[in-house]
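Morning F.,

Quick status update on the modeling queue. The single chain you submitted on Monday has been processed. Sequence for confirmation:
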Amino acid sequence: MRLLKIVPDHTNIGFVRLRFWAFGLTLALSIACVALVAVKHLNFGVDFVGGLMIEERFPSPPPLDQVRATIDKLGVGTSTLQQFGDPKLVTIRLPVQEGADEGATNRVVRTVETALAKEFPGAKFSRYSTVSGKVSGELVRNGILAVVLAMIGISLFAIFRFEWQFGVSTFVAILHDLLMTLGFFALTQMEFDLTIIAAVLTIIGYSINDKIVIDDRIRENMRKYRSMNMSDIVDLSVNETLPRTVMTSVTILLALGALLLLGGHVLRGFTAAMTLGIIVGTYSSIYVSSSLLITLGLRAQPPGANEGKAERVAERP
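Structure tokens below.
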């Protein structure tokens, strides 16, 4: 029985030849994502802004103006409504109820639920969550700190494990993946909450795992083929690890695709972030970070290298 091979044997793609196009595309997309976040802003969930979030399911897509008017009459604060994915499911966000304990919060939830059920027969309460302003501030700080420390820690590991060029290229690749994720959520206005922070950290972990494998092969080939041109070494290393990279990405995307289709509303944001992260992480590992090593001045010929060792010249297509 023949084994399935997504990438044929002896694949020899010239990735380095496209590095300036890749750098230009990466820079343009990064700037676009920063602009999206600055202009449209992220749709922070209750975890980060505090307040009360209620999900209500209606028998048919309701007019949002009528839903908002019904809630505003209750005197529980200005409401923010959102529909995403399922038009029958409406997310209602209310401001923090000052001085409200759990009993008071439950009363607000019941009040909103009763009013909507009366105005829209068949409407059913789905779930609610509440976070105080103080707790939401701590979650924002801790979430940012977790992402920043992960990026710095992984970059330092690459510096000590390889050379400083590997650390810089690792940081650039991770920053690119992070900006792509933030830009996607700013564009789609999907809710950005703690589960997305978990997805971002998972994306960073996947991206660095893929990149370390490629970097390790690059360093191994630098020692093995000491007089080979650096561009050829990078192409050779990326092509040698390409079957593993593609197979890993495809199998993960298959699992994420099932979650995206069948996981429901609660997992949709997390799954979408993971799916995007796998795609951009694979792209940055192959086209950005590896080729960036050449731009940063990494040389295939180390000082004092023994020229008598076996050499190999990569065949160019």
